[in-house]
Write a structure and sequence with these properties.
The complex is a heterodimer. By secondary structure, chain A is an alpha/beta fold. Chain A contains 22 helices and 8 strands. Helices cover 60% and strands 8% of the residues of chain A. The longest helix of chain A has 32 residues. Chain B is an alpha/beta fold. Helix content of chain B is 52%, strand content 14%. In chain B, strands 3-2-4-1-5-6-7-8 form an 8-stranded mixed beta sheet, with helices on both faces. Classes of the chains: A alpha/beta, B alpha/beta. Chains A and B meet through helix 2, helix 6 and helix 9 of A and helix 2, helix 6 and helix 9 of B.
């Protein structure tokens, strides 16, 4: 989602890289670009101004440090300030010392409150072993109650609703019911409302007064533009917010609202919605997002997702086979499946430091992976182990079995061949993994200079290009030799 | 009846007056102070335009143009300046277009698409209500089979608007619902089919393909359908709306926009960028939660509202 903004920063920093010294002029020139990038990402105008003032004063006052390029130094300042702006990671919820913990969700229409309520219930049940009660208090939107009931069923969580009550009374009764029923958490799903709708705003304030929630969370759409400042301020005035949940981060919105909200509301972003699925709510890591904005990648999220998708045993076996050069089509298929489990490939590539911007424009058709998997399914065990021996007649049979064309089978085999050749590159990634600190914590110094521990992505790509060039050179040499031979005849 | 009309105008005024507050208020202060066009003024103007989600490119263009003309003596301070700003934005918006592209014969099919939470279902209901009010016979199709209770939501609306509805099963095939709806409209003599689709983020390829399929399936029944594909955009949306419009247009051939939730403080200024980059015009605006709260888009009023 931060692809675009990352690209911009990449070009800005490229410019700095070429310069020897940080002068007031070139800093200002470069920061103009940073400003544009942030605005195009929907960071609030007032936040952008304050941010740039801070960066500028820090950068201009700074002495050049020996051994560090001006570019790195500016990256460091922008990065530090972005992190400072977004605050410390904080996805803790304050648990009530006695009785149920009450969580109030509020926000504009369509921000995703009801879905988030169900996702939050799911997360608290699974990761915190809490007994949760969902409360359907959206009496405005038709069928909102049915929606929450359906979602409650899907996550296995009871849903409280009583007919004929106003939301404040309904919520108060729900909290009382939870206390009696021995539930640990009550999540109040309120109606979406405009911050300028006085009647509905005082109603939600009344809900707050009646239930005294331990956490009051504003649910905000990641695609929100400049108006986020107005609406979130207004909500914060009427409800003492304790945190924010940003939804629909699986879109490609540049997500500037994340940068703004913490600043405007002064409360941490607790969770982010990253998928339509009910397990798609995650704790928010400000530092990771800062790195992503700066085109520094988000290797930690990448590693985490990879860990979820591939079990250790599988990974170890695969490594062994690669080391012994026994990587075959069955392994390839296993990999394809693991990749689709990890989510969108484009998203994944965006997480790898330095690669995001490069791959953003690539048309990657993820359906191809599924096709490939189907084609491999219609191969015999022997064929999977000996892809190089699949001849034309086998190709035809496989194509028939998979409902594909022989050209597709051919393409798969070619891809596999390339993949096998690229396995050498895997060594670099493993090397990288070793160089990451064991606890996964990255120190400030490392962050300031990611090149010190990350392999240079340009070099990685270079290598592959070199190989390609070498292959072409050899093919050309072979062709010429053949020609000479023919001429001699 | 008269009360209803009175209430309708009340609503328009209400909706637009809220729209006025941010941009209009600040600009009026600026212009009212009768200041010369200096650096501080330009910066304030820039902030105001940006805050309305008009976008960096258009904002910079307006500022550059303003400075050039001011130096050339074509624009003076005060009211003249206001006229210039209005004209700049108005020039971006097309002339008034008809509300919907009705088919000459047989039912008109309107597909309503957009990202999650934009307000598609509510818009379909309001649109059905509006069409009924102008003497047409609409039928709504609850083809959002994905979101829990989306079908119930539209059913409640259909009942309130007293229009016919064709429903799918939760988790069922959305394209089949659309097909059935078109067939039902033909059989029952309904002249407009409004199809409510599931919200989808435009970067989810498989979901976008689903829309493509829906289009293909509808065309099996009625080759010239859909006559209109309306993209519903949330007025609070920022610059990502441009990307949304781009992808939806590419894949499903969006023909027009509906801007919802304009009764808040959001300006919906991104509509100007969408028009500029993709040539898509706004057909309707949503200004409230009631059935009456959908208005045909009026570009003059839109710009007036911004600077009023």
């Amino acid at each position: 989602m931060f692809e675009f903004i990352s690209e911009r920063f990449a070009s800005v920093f490229e410019r700095f890289r070429k310069q020897q010294n940080l002068t007031a002029d070139n800093i200002r020139e470069g920061l103009k670009e940073v400003r544009r990038a942030l605005l195009e990402a929907d960071v609030a105008v007032e936040v952008v101004r304050e941010f740039l003032q801070r960066v500028e004063s820090k950068a201009i006052g700074q002495q050049l440090i020996a051994g560090v390029t001006p570019a790195q130094q500016i990256v460091q300042v922008v990065h530090d300030e972005l992190i400072a702006l977004m605050g410390e990671p904080d996805s803790e919820l304050p648990w009530a010392s006695a009785g149920p913990t009450v969580i109030l969700l509020a926000g504009l229409q369509g921000s995703g409150k009801t879905t988030t309520a169900a996702k939050l219930a799911h997360l608290l049940q699974r990761q915190h072993q809490k007994r949760v009660l969902l409360v359907a208090a959206d009496l405005q939107r038709p069928a909102a109650i049915e929606q929450l009931k359906t979602l409650g069923q899907q996550v296995g969580c009871p849903v409280f609703h009583r007919e004929g009550l106003r939301p404040p009374e309904l919520c108060a009764q729900a909290v009382a019911a939870a206390r009696q029923g021995g539930q640990d958490v009550v999540i109040l799903d309120t109606a979406g409302r405009l911050h300028v709708d006085e009647a509905l705003m005082s109603e939600v304030a009344e809900v707050h007064a009646r239930t005294q929630p331990h956490a009051t969370l504003l649910v905000v759409d990641a695609m929100t533009g400049q108006d986020a400042v107005n609406s979130s301020k207004a909500f914060h005035q009427r409800l003492p917010l304790t945190g924010v949940i940003v939804t629909k981060l699986d879109g490609d919105a540049r997500g500037g609202v994340i940068v703004s909200l913490r600043h405007v509301v002064g409360r941490p972003i607790k969770f982010v919605g990253v998928s339509e699925k009910l397990d798609g709510l995650q704790p928010f890591h400000p530092d990771r997002y800062a790195r992503r904005i700066l085109g520094m990648g988000d290797i930690l999220t990448f590693v985490e997702r990879a860990k979820q998708a591939v079990d250790d045993e599988q990974a170890r076996r695969l490594e062994e086979r690669i080391a012994k050069d026994k990587f075959d089509l069955s392994d390839f298929q296993e990999q394809l499946r693991a990749i689709s489990r990890m989510g969108s490939l484009k998203d994944l590539l965006g997480l790898i430091p330095g690669l995001g911007a490069k791959f953003a424009q690539l048309p990657i058709d993820e359906k191809v992976f599924k096709r490939y998997s189907v084609i491999i399914d219609s191969m015999t065990k022997w064929e999977r182990a000996h892809p190089e021996l699949i001849d034309m007649s086998r190709r035809r049979r496989i194509a028939m079995g998979a409902g594909a064309t022989t050209a597709e089978v051919q393409a798969l085999l070619k891809h596999f061949e390339m993949m096998k050749k690229m396995m050498g590159k895997l060594g670099d990634v493993q090397e990288l993994a070793k160089r990451l600190p064991p606890d996964g914590e990255l120190t400030k110094e490392r962050l300031a200079n990611p090149q010190s521990f990350l392999p240079n992505p340009n070099r990685l790509l270079q290598k592959r290009e070199d190989k390609e060039a070498l292959r072409k050179y050899r093919a050309e040499r072979k062709r010429k030799a053949k020609l000479r031979k023919q001429q001699r005849r | 009846m008269f009360r209803a009309i009175g209430r309708f105008f009340e609503r328009i005024k209400e909706g637009l007056s809220k729209t006025r507050q941010v941009i209009g208020g600040a600009l009026r202060r600026l212009i009212g102070a009768r200041r010369t066009i200096d650096a501080a003024f330009l910066r304030e103007l820039e902030d105001t335009l940006l805050a309305a989600d008009i976008g960096v490119a258009k904002t910079e263009e307006i500022l550059a143009d303003l400075q050039r003309r001011y130096r050339a003596g074509e624009v003076a301070e005060g009211e003249d300046l206001l006229r210039f700003l209005k004209a700049s934005l108005r020039a971006e918006l097309a002339a008034e277009e008809q509300e919907l592209r009705f088919a000459a014969q047989g039912p008109t099919v309107v597909l309503v698409v957009g990202v999650n939470g934009a307000g598609k279902t509510t818009t379909v209901a309001k649109l059905a209500h509006r069409l009924r009010a102008i003497g047409r016979r609409p039928l709504v199709a609850a083809a959002d089979t994905y979101r829990a209770a989306a079908i119930e939501q539209l059913s409640v609306w259909a009942q309130r608007a007293r229009v016919e509805i064709v429903k799918g099963e939760p988790g069922g095939d959305a394209a089949a619902v659309a097909y059935d709806a078109v067939a039902a409209a033909q059989a029952r003599g309904c002249d407009t089919v409004l199809i409510d689709t599931a919200g989808r983020l435009h970067n989810k390829e498989h979901l976008m393909r689903e829309l493509e399929k829906m289009r293909r399936v509808i065309q099996k029944r009625l080759p010239e359908a859909p006559h209109d594909v309306l993209l519903v955009l949330d007025a609070t949306a920022g610059q990502n709306a441009v990307q949304q419009a781009k992808v939806f247009k590419e894949i499903i051939g969006v023909t027009g926009l509906v801007i919802t939730k304009l009764d808040g403080t959001a300006k919906g200024g991104v509509a100007i960028t969408v028009k500029r980059e993709l040539g898509l015009t706004v057909r309707y605006i949503g200004v409230g939660e009631g059935l009456d709260d959908l208005q045909p888009f009026d570009p003059d009023a839109f710009v007036e509202a911004i600077f009023a």
